Amino acid sequence: MMTGTSKITLAARRASGADLAIIAGIELGGALLLGFFLLTDDWRLIVALLAVFAAGFALLQIRPAIEDRIVSAFHAARAQALGLGAVVVLVYPFMMQGSSYALHLLVIAQLYAVLALALNFQLGSANIPNFATGASYGIGAYCSALLAIDFGVSFWLTLPIAALVATGFGFVLGFPSMRTRETYLALVTIAFGIVVHQLLNNFSWTGGPNGLVGIPAPTIAGHSFTAPIELFGQRLPSQANFYYLAAALVALAIVCARRLHDSRVGLAWNALRCDELAARCQGINVVWYKMMAFAVDAFLAAFAGSVYAAYVSYISPDNFTFLVSVTIMTMVIVGGMDNTLGVIVGAFLLTLLPEKLRIFADYRLLFVSVIVILFLILRPQGLFPQRPRSYGGR
Amino acid sequence: MDAFVMQNLMNWLVLSSIYALVALGFSLLFGVLNVIHFSHGDVSIVAPFVVLATVQALIATAFPAATPGALVLACAAAIVVVGLIGVLADWLVIRRFRNAPAMMALVATVALGTVIRELIRMIYPQGSNPKPFPNLIETRLMIGDLTVPVFSLFVIAVSVLMMIVLYVVMRHTPLGMRIRAVAEDRNIARLMAISPSRIYAATFFIASAVGAIGGIFYASYAGVVRFDFGIQLGLIGFSAAVIGGLGSMQGAILGSLLIAGIDTLVQATMAEGASYRLVFAFLLVIFVLVLKPSGILGRTVMEKV
Amino acid sequence: MSGPVLEARNLSIRFGGLVAVAGVDLSLSAGEVLCIIGPNGAGKSTLFNLISGIYRPSSGSVHLDGRAITGQPAHRIAAAGIARTFQSSRLFTDLTLVDNVVIGMHCRTRSGVLDALLRPRHARAELEAAAERAGELLRLVSPDLYQRRHTLAGALPQADRRRLEIARALASEPKVIMLDEPSSGMDDRDTDALIEDIHMTMAERPGLSYIIIEHDMRLVAALPERVMVIDYGAKIAEGPFAEVRQDRRVQEAYLGQRAAHA
Asked: Residues A246, A322: one domain?
């Protein structure tokens, strides 16, 4: 636990060489670890990398001071950390040795990161159970796909429209939260998710169980997203287009998350998470803030849905089931509630792990579930627990 | 017309009975542990697989041909085994979340459900494929121009019997009193020399064993069972328990009657009923909870300030 | 403005057959301190819950500055200018002290979701200013709390929790502040400090009116101008403490019938 005084000195501190070294070490080391993980097929290496990852967290668990030191480094040299992070993200596809599979995994992982960040507003910030993020994701995907296929609307236009439509649904879903709570509210969201899934499955205009095929890919300045990127004499597979699009979306989600978290709204959500009645007595309109949480969740999830639809060009109801919602929920809890970085790491881990465990073929789902359970037992606060807000120019 | 109505009435009661057997487990576990055991449906659906496996084992050894005796024995074995699986699930996973936030336990048991489904799929030969499940009682009664499967009557009778047994056990036996004491306050119960961990084990055994009967009936009613049937059975049982009011046994039964009612009604009256049954069932769930936020018979707890 | 700040008339609530509060009248002028005493379960906290909008009264009315607020939701009443603390302190334990006090300023700040997303500088500046004021408020209530302002509220000892709750209530710049047994769980020294704190805030904010539910007779003797006694949900006496303590019915309620007659 940091004391008030150490915080103040920390705020005034200028970035030192040690800070920059820590940041470079963490960001490049993380990128390297992820890169090896994505590119290898050798299960021994995969297990070894996972062991390194786990050891890192075990170390943090035993020595919390290390985590504090890392956080303080990132606070002190925020601009440098952001700059380096942006460079890593931009350059990353060039390091993937042209592997379209690795890039595909990164696209999916990033979309799940957006979904997890969306859900984090509710589950993490406000402790509202929502098992319908998958439904908002699906509404976004179907909405933009239908607009593109049936009306020839440009992808860039479908993006905001789908988000607005899903936000509307989010409000509708948030409506019962006026009165229902906890397990009962959880069931309302489960029921909503199932109803959406079943309707997508039954309507003829959504293509029924077969879904929608031939969703056009976006183009930008005449460059189709299905074409490879040629840059600096390098040729990136077409997935790279969506990699950058998804990365931009993740950036947008992070900005939203940070801004809302460090605002009066984030505080109000945190307040009602801890004690709804006390929150009401501070003048917080609890119902309104809950509905806002539903709306923000749906808004971001729909963005992810639109990008997903355009990326895979084929969607069916089974992409948006109850289990998808549960997966997103697990990502938030495993990553760390109300911690942006944690939620993103959780999303990457739970997207990549089952894929890389394909070598265990039949056992991978079992494996992942067991890991999730062990996780909840051994590190219930998540990979990165929530940290206190900081004030005063940081 | 009359036959049609009677047929659907019968379907309604049979479905209600099956759902209620699962919903009662949810309600019981929530009432005692304040925990949503989301994998309860998956635990219950293990039962038909144990039945199938036991019947085959019996045929291969003791019983030369498929006799009713083998089936009865297999069902009894399945109920006990599944009861123990419930206890094991608690001991391995759920008990570690007694003091954790409700959401953690919920997610953990969802993951546990996946573990159970995957284990069925792996352990049972060709577990990914649907398995035909025998009709427990093939005989049909002719009443006037109405054919009544004895199986339907049997399902209803057994369910009603189980409800009565559960009620009597909970209200009028020392065990039931201990369970209720632990549900009321685990620490005070401990002072009364009641061991909460034993009570939890007993509760999990009872809930899972009753769920197992529901699972066997469900498979027999459908004529087929697959490793992932537990998701839907669990979701419906959970919904029934919640809209009835968690922790209330009467509520679980009422919720089952409602959900099975809309299910049967939609299938009987709509052209595409089969594909819309879940839509209407879960719209009903939303509708009920919007009107009655703590379920129909659930107590609205006034928060102490 | 000459009328009372807060006025409740004939306030009642029934839970099923139980009448928890029965026809209580209450009137409070600006800057006044009113103490409510009465045996356990007399309906004191329920009265607070009625005024702060947690319960909806079965009958009767509540006016703040002459404006009817009867039956309005709690967050509106808080925004209208009634702040409160709780008998068992209800802090946001997983947040820092500053966060707790800033949340108390919720209805005195404006930024919504769109401000936070689209005008982050503006929203951030508002929050920073609120945090600044929260710090000052904490310093005013207790320098010790100010020192610990970036630690989690859940880690505070009981007496400091009460202080923080009072700071949070003050943060909303209320017209009326209601303290529900502020001294419960405190030893004598803490209670003295609390009395001092309350005197200090009274000096700091002259127009602010207080309603205090209290058991500790030292505190009751030290603070209020007026005392109101509630038993079985009904008001049985009201007036200066010295007078009220002589009232036979009050003694009966507190000591039991026989003792009072003896």
From this structure: yes
d(CA A299, CA B28): 38
The interface predicted TM-score of the complex, written ipTM, equals 0.93
User: Any residues with CB less than 8 A from the CB of A272 and at least 6 apart, and which?
Assistant: A126, A127, A279, A284, A286, A289, A290
Residue type, position C38, single letter: G
List, in sequence order, the alpha helices (H) in A133-238. 133-151, 155-174, 182-202
Residues A82 and A135 in one domain: no
Instruction: Pick the residue of A181, A198, A364, A365 with the most B CBs within 10 A to test the interface with B by mutation.
Output: A198
Helix axis angle, B2-33 to B174-184, nearest 10°: 60
Tell me: do A47 and A66 sit in the same domain: yes
Q: How far is CA C61 from CA A132, C46, C227, in A?
A: 42, 15, 21
Full residue range of the structural domain in which residue A31 is found: 15-97
Same domain flag for A74 and A185 = no
Q: Which residues of A touch B (CB under 8 A)?
A: 123, 127, 129, 175-176, 179-184, 186-188, 190-192, 194-195, 198-199, 201-202, 277, 322-323, 326, 329-330, 333, 362-363, 365-366, 368-370, 372-373, 376-377, 380
The model's pLDDT over A56-88, given as tens digits with 9 standing for 90+, comes to: 888 888 888 888 888 888 888 888 999 999 999
Is-contact C172 C83, C-beta < 8 A?
Answer: yes
Per the document, the length of chain A is 394
Three-class DSSP category at B245: coil
Residues A177 and A285 in one domain: yes
Look-up of token digits 């391995």: B92
Name the least confident of A106-120, C158-172, C247-261: C247-261
pLDDT tier at B303 (50, 70, 90 boundaries)?
Answer: low
What pLDDT does residue A5 have?
A: 37
Asked if A325 and A139 count as a contact pair (C-beta separation under 8 A), the reply is no
**C74-89 mean pLDDT:** 93
Number of domains making up chain B: 1
What range does the domain containing C186 cover? 6-91+173-261
- Average pLDDT (A356-385) is 82
Residue A112 has a pLDDT of 97
Q: Tokens representing C32?
A: 């006044």
Structural domain contains residue A293: yes
Same domain, residue pair C103 and C83: no
Report the pLDDT value the prediction gives residue A13, as an integer from 0 to 100. 63
pLDDT in the model for residue A165: 96
Q: Find residues 124-163 of chain B whose CB sits inside 8 Å of chain A.
A: none
Q: Do A132 and A273 have their domain in common?
A: yes
pLDDT band at B63 (very low <50, low <70, confident <90, very high): low
C92/A284 touch (CB, cutoff 8 Å), yes or no: no
Band (C97; pLDDT cuts 50, 70, 90): very high
pLDDT of residue A2: 38
- Measured CA to CA in angstroms, residue A321 lies from A190, A191, B108 at distances of 10, 11, 18
| CA–CA distance, C214 with A132 (Å, rounded to integer) | 47
Look at residue A394 in the predicted model and tell me its pLDDT. 41
Which pLDDT score is estimated for B246? 86
**A252 touches C at CB < 8 Å:** no
Is B284 within the bounds of a domain? Answer: no
| Mean pLDDT score of chain A | 88
pLDDT digits (tens, 9 = 90+) for C147-167: 999 999 999 998 899 989 999
On whether residue C164 sits in a domain, the answer given is: no
| Same structural domain, C225 and C252 | yes
| Any domain includes C1 | no
Identify whether residues C51 and C124 lie together within a single domain: no
Residue from A196, A206, A199 nearest A172 by CA: A196
Task: Give the nearest chain A residue to B284 (CA atoms).
Answer: A191
- State whether residue A256 sits within 8 Å of chain C by CB: yes
Residues C80 and C185 in one domain: yes
